[in-house]
Specification:
Distance between the termini: 10 Å
Radius of gyration: 13 Å
Largest sheet: 5 strands, parallel
CATH topology: Rossmann fold
CATH class: Alpha Beta
CATH architecture: 3-Layer(aba) Sandwich
Strand order of the largest sheet: 2-1-3-4-5
Order of helices and strands: EHEHEHEHEH
Number of helices: 5
Length: about 120
Amino acid sequence: MKVLVVDDSSTMRRIIKNTLNRLEIKNTIEGEDGVEGFTQLEKNPDTDLIITDWNMPNMNGLEFVKKIRSDERFKDKPIVMVTTEGGKREVITALKAGVNNYIVKPFTPQVLKEKLKTIV
């Protein structure tokens, strides 16, 4: 399984990648914002899952999700949003934009594992 991790925080990308490693998911690529994330997705169209933050410069996570969903090549890729935006309105907005699941930071490895089970 290949996972694209997009977050402007290198620390958060490392935390997510380490968690994925513990779940035996070792094939990860990363981007630091939606622009770089989409470029990585185009370079790696065989990506199986996208994990993205919401609050990022250049292209935020919501814009990134909408761009993915509007592209015929990637519209069915599973997307998990991992963010500090935990309000009901934000969750609904993200789900309407096309995310498959939503995790509020901070999270435990178990939460990520459970959310991934429902998608893949």
